[in-house]
Design goal:
single chain, 246 residues, alpha+beta, Jelly Rolls, Arc Repressor Mutant, subunit A, seven-stranded antiparallel beta sheet, 10 helices, 16% strand
């Protein structure tokens, strides 16, 4: 998926990637199945320690981020960007590359400006611009194409995405399907489906829908469920996320 800038200079989403600029305050430690890159522009803390640099957080690592202002970038575990974050984290740890920079608060807030600031991390910038699927299974590629259609049309309700039904549609066993998802996408089916539903909900919000409408369209039980999912994934409240689109 190639990065295409739009009218929301502080927000971008694609099937394997979400970028948002704003406030991220975790009220308690949590974890999720995604790679996370946080780039603060104001004094921030991670797990109670002051952040002096940008930080990469691996999937399923408990963390508590308090970032008054900055960028949050989330990537699927086995996406090109996820693999790049994995490699970059190791290179920074071994000092093969310098730590990721913080941003200066007075600098322009836009995706373009962010990429300029990350210029010395060429592979990271390239992966942010172009983040294609890395899986090889023809079954999963077929499924991903169908999931991606939600971003350009009506979101398909989650009852159509039960593992058994998806496996039948792909003409493979349910166990084979679940194994493929975990192996090639790096996350089990249920949390992956929740992530994709969240992307669809955010897409609905970005095009003018409210939280209640977005929750209904994407199969969340209610707006409170969607708000909790936004908070647990981004560290942002739904109100803070909405501000990205103004």
């Amino acid at each position: 998926m190639t990065l295409a800038f739009n009218n929301h200079h502080c927000f971008y989403l694609s099937p394997g990637l979400v970028m948002a600029h704003g406030t991220a305050i975790d009220t308690k430690p949590h974890k999720h199945s995604l790679w996370q890159l946080c780039i603060p522009s104001k004094t921030s803390t991670l797990n109670g320690e002051i952040l002096l640099t940008g930080k990469i957080i691996p999937p399923n690592e408990p963390h508590q981020l308090s970032m008054p202002e900055g960028w949050i970038i989330l990537a699927e575990p086995e996406s090109k960007l996820g693999n790049t974050m994995r490699e970059l984290s190791a290179q920074i740890l071994t000092k093969a590359l310098p730590p990721l920079p913080m941003l200066i608060p007075s600098e322009e807030v836009s995706i373009s400006a962010l990429l300029t600031n990350l210029g010395q991390y060429a592979l990271l910038v390239e992966s942010l611009k172009n983040n294609p699927y890395q899986c090889r299974s023809k079954h999963l590629l077929k499924l991903l194409a169908r999931l991606d259609s939600c971003l350009t049309g009506d979101c398909l309700k989650p009852e159509q995405w039960r593992a058994k039904d998806v496996a039948n549609w792909l003409a493979i066993s349910e166990s084979q399907f679940l194994h493929l998802v975990t192996k090639e996408l790096g996350v089990s089916w249920r949390p992956y489906l929740l992530w994709r539903r969240l992307i669809c909900a955010i897409q609905a919000i970005s095009t003018g829908g409210n939280i209640t409408e977005a929750a209904y369209l994407t199969g969340f039980s209610d707006s409170a469920h969607l708000c909790r999912t936004i908070k647990s994934t981004f560290g942002m409240t739904s109100k803070q996320l909405l501000s990205c689109f103004k």
